[in-house]
């Protein structure tokens, strides 16, 4: 049991975010989820859900620091937030794309930056980013090209931060999900959450990217 150590899931929802929360709660962690609309998340006695906007770096920083203060040291951050403007290339407006990137990339960077400042004095910690196979090739779903661009940038961010943060003992890894998340398939949320758990156990040995292929 790890009473007093916390896991924060940014962008918790009824799918992968909740599955990840359940997986880490089983290991005895205090689990706190952050969501823009907490009422979408089923009430759980083992999981706290706080309101937070991943598009607002200042408020994200404030809520992470409050969790660190009130719920014990944050050992693991899972960044699962995303925003997608669906439409063929050329359809979403520049403002749509900017709003998507604000959540998909800037929010991830802001949360990672905050966690680096909190984890560095302890010399350990895991930052796990939910990536997507569209980062490798956007053509299978061109109507999600803005999400593809965000996931590609997130993948680049993971590689950069992994190299920079490892000297502080902090592991940064993107779990690149090369398929559609769906219950009762090889891409079920529980299976991906299990991979996230093993990424944490591997620590710095996980490297900047783990590609989940459903096998």
Automatic annotation (TrEMBL):
The organism's place on the tree of life at top rank: Bacteria
Gene3D superfamilies referenced in this protein's UniProt entry, alphabetically: NAD(P)-binding Rossmann-like Domain
InterPro entries per UniProt: NAD(P)-bd_dom_sf, SDR_fam
Pfam families: adh_short (PF00106)
Residue stretches in coiled coil: none
PANTHER family: OS08G0476300 PROTEIN (PTHR43431:SF1), OXIDOREDUCTASE, SHORT CHAIN DEHYDROGENASE/REDUCTASE FAMILY (AFU_ORTHOLOGUE AFUA_5G14000) (PTHR43431)
Protein name: NAD(P)-dependent dehydrogenase (Short-subunit alcohol dehydrogenase family)
């Amino acid at each position: 049991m790890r009473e007093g150590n916390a896991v924060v899931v940014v962008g918790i929802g009824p799918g992968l975010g909740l599955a990840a929360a359940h997986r880490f709660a089983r290991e005895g962690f205090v689990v706190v989820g952050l969501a823009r609309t907490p009422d979408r998340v089923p009430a759980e006695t083992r999981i706290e859900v706080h309101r937070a906007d991943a598009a607002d770096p200042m408020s994200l920083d404030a809520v992470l620091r409050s969790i660190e203060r009130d719920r014990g040291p944050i050992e693991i951050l899972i960044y699962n937030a995303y925003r997608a403007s669906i439409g063929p290339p050329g359809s979403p407006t520049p403002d749509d794309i900017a709003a998507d990137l604000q959540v998909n990339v800037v929010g991830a960077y802001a949360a990672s930056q905050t966690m680096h400042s909190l984890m560095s004095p302890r010399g350990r910690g895991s930052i796990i980013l939910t990536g997507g196979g569209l980062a490798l090739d956007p053509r299978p779903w061109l109507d999600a090209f803005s999400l593809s661009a965000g996931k590609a940038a997130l993948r680049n961010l993971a590689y950069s931060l992994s190299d920079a943060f490892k000297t502080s003992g902090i592991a940064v890894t993107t779990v690149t999900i090369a398929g559609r998340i769906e219950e009762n398939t090889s891409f079920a949320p529980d299976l991906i959450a299990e991979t996230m758990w093993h990424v944490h156990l591997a620590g710095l040995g996980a490297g900047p990217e783990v590609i989940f292929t459903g096998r």
